[in-house]
Write a structure and sequence with these properties.
Layout (H helix, E strand, L loop, with lengths): L9 H18 L11 H13 L16 H13 L3 H24 L4 H17 L9 H22 L3 H16 L1 H21 L5 H28 L3 H18 L16 H5 L1 H4 L2 H6 L16 H5 L2 H34 L6 H16 L7 H4 L3 H19 L2 H32 L2 E3 L6 E3 L3 H15 L8 E2 L3 H7 L18 H11 L4 E5 L9 H4 L1 H10 E7 L8 E6 L15 E3 L1 E6 L2 E6 L9 E6 L6 E8 L12 E8 L6 E9 L11 E6 L7 E9 L11 E4 L2 E3 L26 H9 L14
Parallel strand pairs: 3-4
Antiparallel strand pairs: 1-2, 4-6, 5-6, 7-10, 8-9, 9-16, 10-15, 11-14, 11-16, 11-17, 12-13, 12-15
Amino acid sequence: MSEKNSPFTRTDVWIALGVAVAAIVFQWPIHDRWLALLDEGYVLSIADYINRGLVPYRDVTIDAPFPAAFYLLAWWFRLTGTSVESSRLLVLGAFALYAVAFYRIARALLPRTWSLALVVLLFCYRLWAFPHWQFYSYSLVAATLATVATALVFVAVRAGTTLPLLAAGAVAGLATLSKQDYGGSVSLALAAALLVIAWLQERRGWLRSVAPAFFFGLGAAAVVVPAFLHLIANGALDAMIQQTIVFPFEVMGKASYPRLPALWPPWGRDEALRAGIGNYFPSILATLWWNECPGCWASDLGQSWAYRSTWIWDVTLKLAFWAPLLLTLLALVLWIRRLVAAARNGSPDPQAAPRILTLAFAIGFLLSFNPPRDWVHLMMVYPPTALLLGAVLARDASVAVGRLPAFGLRAVLGAAALAALVVTIALMSDLRDRVDHWIGDPRGRVYADRSNGPLLDDVIAWSNRSVPPAVPMPVYPMQPMIGFLAGRSTVAGYHVIWPHQTAERDRRIVEALDAQDVRYLVFSLSQWGHLQPFQANAAHLFDALVEGWEIDQVFSREWNGPIVVSLKRRPAGSRHTTSLQSVAVARDAAWTRWPFDEVLTHAVGTTDESAARIELTVPEDRPFVDTAFGMNPDRWYGPPTGPITFEAFVEAPPGGERRSLVRQTIDPRSVVADRHWFPVTFDLSAEAGRPVTLVLTASVETIPPESADLVGWRDPELRGTRQRRSRGRSPSGEDPQAVELNRGAAGAANALRAIAPGSKTRPPPAAR
């Protein structure tokens, strides 16, 4: 095919249709793979809420984005049904439209062969931008619409007509209404480019010079203004301003976000980059190939020689993050020189307008790259502009040099593109093979990964059995996909509990839980550490849950996998008959709150020196201490912290001879069956009326680095009979009868540990 850059013709229209079909075919094998518990569940839940008659911002909190993407998905749900599968079909269409628009832009600057090669790389990019092109999101919608708007501006400038400009403006307005940073910055950049192009053309009146930008803006206003009028009519405008403008800027000033890796020096090991490798490593590689991946095309990259002993990855990642900035700067310098040279020669450059629009397209997205600047967020829109600019610059270079160097350049670029395609297909194959747990619920109908999929089945089955359909079942802190799959609503309009949300949030949630008589909620114990603990993000709500709720069941299948619990309301009067805290003096111990109990905690050690001592006079009418021991549920997931041997003694008189009350070894970090409280009753009737000292110990062979707040005894109470509080249910959903614990009870736990996996610490793929 000719290397000349021919105009966009009817043949290109047919090629564009072929690109759309190819995009769908390329995506189809993996379109239903993987599930995002946070980001995807958040968007799908809000669209579902809209179809229930609720108004965004007023009735449901949406932190950051404008509403168009949610309304689009709500309409799609009404058309095709409410499910994850349905939303994935919309993703197929969106990326196909994105690819067609990208091909149209490329054809304004490149020959067909170059443009089609660029489309192939764009297909590869679709996977490497994982996960945000895998599921429906407002970022995906905004990026697609901004690219379509750019393609329409290319059409309008070439045709010199007004209608494509109005259409481009309307699409840009929709992009802005989907995600204000992507859509707004690209829209402003395109409007500025239209003014520059008009200024470079033959001199004419200022009204005609600003007309293209005016009509573009008029098209945008035609969709933006009615949307805001709709929000005003529904009393949602003030809430929208607070949630989409005030909140994001407040968070930017408070949160600590990942930044671009340091460019200099561009070679050598970068320890800062490696310390935050989870932010910068390609997400699809981290999901599949970073750890051991039996049967995969590649495996255990994090332990490979290339990563551990060379700086190949350091340099490669820096280039990936900085290439769009560097290529945009290079194109800006070279193309401005080209424009200046054409002006001096008095010969207009036929490629001036397409290049100016291409720069606007690239710069618009660069302007929208707010923190966090990690792989997941930047790669949503980051590489395509670099691919386009790089292809145009490479083609310019091939034209400027001789035939043989040009052939060599094209051969190198072609080989690189082919290698990228091969690796991409390998990743797609492994994604299909590894993400293979079918979520058959009508609201699912997609495949989840092997860690989260079975657990989701367990939680949904439990909710179907336990929670009436019309009763809300909130899911905290950040897994709204669970509520969406279960078809349950939240309360007070909050689907996630973020840092820095409004101070009224906790009060509104607590009031709604009581007003709507919510009996159950779901809570995930496996969270992202960089978002702070739930206790820090929602202190008032946490306290309310500790006081009024208790763990009902634990859903956990793997020692190093996700952990979810169900909470139920405590029966009225079920606690604080006589709290040990009210009659005893504790030394080397502290009263605190865990998820979701009052706890007496103390140090963990290797000797008796770390023991907690509780001094009290045993009441004659209440000589039984009812308690339970265990590990902090927040520590069930994380670095190895066991086995732990709990022992309790009574000294009567204080400092005198000890009598053993309980001894048992548990290991909740490695043994799934140990993830619960272990109830025990201390019989102190022989010491009734006498002062005694309870000695509580927790010993390990090696003290873990973070040993504080690790072990504890649940809210010890004094009772007159051998009454016991429920121990909660096991991961299997059974509620076994509590039995007396003694020295011999350690045998069962030790047997479980004997068949448990080794003590590995690598986390499973994150289900964002």
